[in-house]
Design brief:
With about 450 residues, this protein is an alpha/beta fold. It is built from 14 helices and 19 strands. The two termini are about 25 Å apart.
Length: about 450
C-alpha cells in the first residue's frame, strides 16, 4: 500500500561530476552537499555502453521510465511526445499520490492532476498548474529558442520578467541580480541564473502544494562543465583554456556547484522534511583535446544561400537544428546536397539524421573557423562562411555513462558505494512510497 504521508524530492543535477564535487569539498567548499555525502554516502549508476547513447535526453528517459534505450528507443530531445511510455509521475498518480515536476528533460506530461508540471523548454507537451506556469514555460521556451540563434527578442525578456515577478523568492533576489548583471563578462552566469530561478519556482510551488513526489531538473552544470572544465581549480589534466576564452583565475565550475549547494540547503529547510534523492544521470570527464563548437548565425539564410528548399528550420541546443520539408523527396534531396558540403580540409561540415520529412542536423566541424574559410559543395567552392557562424565554446568535457546517486532515506537506499543501473531509479522512488512492481531493484 502506498504511503500517502511520504514526501520525496528528486533533484536531477544533470551530468555533475561528483569526483570534482568531492575535491571541492576537501578544500572546504559546498558545506550542504558535504554534509549529505558524510551522512548518506554516494552510490553510482550505470547506463549505456555505446557513446552515441550517452546523451542526457536519452538517459533521463531511462531514469523516468525504468527502460533502457533498447527498450524505450527515444534518441532525440523532444521525441518523447510522440510516444506513450509510462513514466514515474503517472505511475505514482495511479497509486493515489500527488506529483509535480519542474523542467524534467525529455518528459511528456501524461499526468491527470499534477500539482504542477512545467516541461523542459524543448519538449512540446502540456503544462499543469496555474496560468503563471504556462506563461513561464512560454517565456523559457521562447528565450531558449532565441538564445539558439544568438538573438533574444525583447518580447522574450518581457515574458521572462513577468515570470520572474510571479515566482522569484526574496532570499534569492541578490544572487539573481548578480547573475543578470554579470552575464556580459561571465557568460556562464546566464545558465546559473536559469537554474537558480527554476529552483525558486520549484520551492514556491512545493511549499504551496506539498505533493508527495516532485522532481526538479537543473542543467547549468552540464553546460558549464562542457565548456569550462579545464579552468576548474581541481582539474589536474594537461589542457588549459586560452586567455581570450576565459580569464585566468576564473572557476565557473565552482560557481555553479556553489549555486547547487545553496539549492540543496534550501531543500533541506523545507517544511515536512521531505526525503531527498539526488541523481546526475551521467557525469562528464575532461575532454582529451581541444574541440571547437560553432553554430549557424542565421540557419534559414544559410540554407537558402546553399539552395536548400525547406518548409521550416528550428534551432535547438548549441550546434543542433531541425529542418522540415513538404515531402520525403525534398528532404532526401536536401540531405544529399548538405552531406556534400565539406570544409577546406575535406571534413564534413554537418552531420545529418534523415527522419522522413525532417532532417535533424548538427554543425559538427571540430576545428577553428577563421576568416577565409571556404567550404566546397561537391567540387565547387562556396564562400567564406566565417561571418555566417558564431563561436559557441571550446569543448572541455565529455559524457561518461557512470552517474551518481544520493539518498537521504538511508533505510531504502543502496549501501554507499554500490552501483546499480539507472533504469532502477523509478523503482527506488516507488519503493520509498511502499509501492512495488514498477521495476525490480537489484543491488550489485
Amino acid at each position: 500500500m502506498a504511503r500517502p504521508g511520504q514526501k520525496l524530492l528528486l533533484i536531477e543535477l544533470n551530468e555533475v561530476n561528483f569526483d570534482y564535487v568531492r575535491r571541492y569539498v576537501a578544500r572546504g567548499e559546498l558545506p550542504a552537499i558535504a554534509r549529505l555525502i558524510d551522512d548518506h554516502g554516494v552510490s553510482e549508476t550505470t547506463s549505456e555502453t555505446e557513446y552515441e547513447h550517452l546523451e542526457p535526453w536519452i538517459q533521463w528517459v531511462t531514469a523516468h521510465t525504468g527502460k533502457t534505450f533498447a527498450e524505450h528507443g527515444i534518441f532525440r530531445l523532444g521525441d518523447i511526445v510522440e510516444q506513450e511510455i509510462d513514466q514515474i509521475w503517472e505511475r505514482l498518480e495511479r497509486a493515489g499520490l500527488s506529483v509535480g515536476a519542474i523542467s524534467p528533460m525529455n518528459a511528456k506530461n501524461r499526468t491527470r492532476n499534477a500539482a504542477f508540471f512545467v516541461p523542459d523548454p524543448w519538449t512540446r507537451t502540456a503544462v499543469s498548474g496555474d496560468r503563471s506556469l504556462q506563461l513561464l514555460w512560454e517565456a523559457l521556451s521562447q528565450a531558449v529558442g532565441d538564445n539558439a540563434t544568438a538573438r533574444i527578442e525583447s518580447s522574450s525578456y518581457l515574458k521572462l520578467l513577468r515570470g520572474l515577478a510571479a515566482h522569484f523568492r526574496i532570499s534569492s533576489i541578490g544572487q539573481l541580480a548578480r547573475f543578470a548583471v554579470g552575464k556580459r563578462s561571465a557568460p556562464w552566469y546566464g545558465a546559473m541564473f536559469l537554474d537558480r530561478f527554476l529552483a525558486d519556482v520549484f520551492v514556491r510551488q512545493w511549499r504551496r502544494h506539498q505533493p508527495n513526489f516532485a522532481s526538479l531538473f537543473l542543467n547549468a552544470a552540464a553546460h558549464i562543465q562542457h565548456h569550462y572544465m579545464f579552468s576548474s581549480r581541481v582539474y589536474d589534466g594537461p589542457n588549459q583554456n586560452p586567455g581570450w576564452y576565459l580569464a585566468p583565475g576564473k572557476d565557473p565550475l565552482l560557481d555553479i556547484y556553489r549555486v547547487y549547494d545553496d539549492i540543496v540547503r534550501d531543500m533541506l529547510a523545507l517544511p515536512a522534511s521531505p526525503r531527498i534523492m539526488i541523481a546526475t544521470g551521467l557525469h562528464q570527464d575532461p575532454y582529451p583535446t581541444q574541440l571547437f563548437y560553432y553554430r549557424l548565425a542565421n540557419h534559414a539564410e544559410f540554407l537558402r544561400r546553399l539552395g536548400v528548399k525547406f518548409a521550416n528550420v528550428v534551432p535547438l541546443m548549441s550546434r543542433d537544428f531541425t529542418v522540415s520539408f513538404d515531402d520525403v523527396q525534398a528532404a532526401e534531396d536536401a540531405a544529399r546536397l548538405l552531406s556534400s558540403v565539406r570544409a577546406p580540409d575535406g571534413l564534413p561540415l554537418f552531420s545529418i539524421d534523415n527522419r522522413g520529412r525532417t532532417l535533424f542536423m548538427m554543425l559538427t566541424y571540430p576545428k577553428e573557423i577563421r576568416a577565409g574559410f571556404i567550404p566546397t559543395l561537391g567540387t565547387q567552392p562556396l564562400w567564406d562562411i566565417q561571418p555566417d557562424v558564431a563561436f559557441v565554446a571550446l569543448k572541455n568535457g565529455e559524457h561518461n555513462g557512470t552517474g551518481y546517486f544520493l539518498d537521504t532515506g538511508a533505510v531504502a537506499a543502496a549501501p554507499a558505494g554500490a552501483r546499480f543501473p539507472l533504469a532502477e531509479l523509478p523503482g527506488r522512488v516507488a519503493a520509498a512510497f511502499g509501492i512495488e512492481g514498477i521495476r525490480e531493484v537489484q543491488h550489485t
